[in-house]
Amino acid sequence: MSSASVTEPRPTVGIVGLGYGRAHIPGFQANGCNVVAVCQRDEATARKIAGTYGVPQVFTRWQDLIARAKPDVVVIATPPHLHRTIALAAFEAGAHVLCEKPVAMNVGEARDMIAAAARAGRIAMTDFNWRFTSGMQELRSLVHGGAIGRPLHLAGRWLGARWADESAAATWRMDRAQAGSGAMGDMGVHLVDMIRWSFGEFARVTAHSGVAYPSRSAPGVSRPADAEDYCTVVGQLTSGAEVTFTVSRVAHGANEHTLEAYGTSGAVSYRLAREGPSWHAGDLKLAKGGSGFQRVETRPVPPTVEGDPMDQIGRATIAPLVARLLEGIKTGQTPSPSLEDGMRAQAVLDAIAEASARGRWVDVR
């Protein structure tokens, strides 16, 4: 048999956690992967999701998924307090890992995960999927190509309304012991990554955060909610550029994120609102030479199909990240966004939490 006629086996994938993890199923399937197992404590819901996507195995314990399904790739989409433990077990079993953000509870845990991946010789990435909209890709290309000159100041926001109503059901995300952080870990970490990726590292930050409804405690937790619902950050990059951004998961009527950057030669303005048939492209504008903003044409993207928002997010934003993961597995070279990227973003989260608690500037270490 000629080598050309040999079909390369499809990578097998196991997904732990089916909240946001549900979006990973179509993301991997769009790349020809064989999603062989899913895991969630709620077995009935897990079986329903597995049936929808044709996944053959369902587990209620992540340990059983790793040991019995033996996937080539383990996706970790659990509450962050479990990320390190599951990642270390996956590496020990010889699996590659794609981990949801925030990658860990703190920088120390993230370093442990990076070291374990290196010992095992496995590829490990962080799911910073919002890098992969065509608008965000073009923004980075423009900035790195010198379109705005030397960046002077940046502004961003990430707003959602999921928990804007006080009566909205609480989840583990309200409990810092499980989540590590609140709106910053849910949403703000993506802004941190976008800024790092396009403009460089954070040097220091100060912040103010709050809990909208302290009485809305996480299920099974008898103390008030302690994970922030909103946060405003002022920062400085190592380049000297200044940054301000706000994140909120209690913003009535909002479901969007934005990033603007103003430099010595021009400015860019990016906005993604989850509305319209091609929402996942994002909208990008450029201003040059003192003129007003003009829309920038980005690479065309197919419109999303009607249906499950998690399915749309998976196909539009996670699938291109998965393509990089698979290429990394083939070459043995870890692509970005790596666990290292996750760790650097975690360092910013840690500094923001400290700055908010102590009311002062904190260096990012």
Structural class by SSE content: alpha/beta
Q: Order of helices and strands, N to C?
A: EHEHEHEHEHEHEHHEEEEEEEHHE
Q: What fraction of the residues are assigned to beta strands by DSSP?
A: 15-25%
Mean model confidence by pLDDT: 95
Query: Termini distance?
Result: 56 Å
Quaternary structure state of the chains depicted: single chain
Low-confidence stretches: 1-5
Give Rg in angstroms: 20 Å
Number of strands: 15
Portion of residues within helices: 25-40%
Strand order of the largest sheet: 14-13-12-11-7-10-9-8-15
The coarse silhouette is globular
Q: What does the main sheet amount to?
A: 9 strands, mixed
* Alpha plus pi helix count: 10
Brief account:
The protein is of the alpha/beta class. It has helices spanning 24-29, 43-53, 62-69, 83-92, 107-120, 134-144, 176-179, 183-199, 309-331, 339-358, and strands at residues 12-16, 34-39, 57-59, 73-76, 96-99, 124-126, 151-160, 202-210, 230-237, 242-248, 255-263, 266-273, 283-288, 294-295, 362-363.
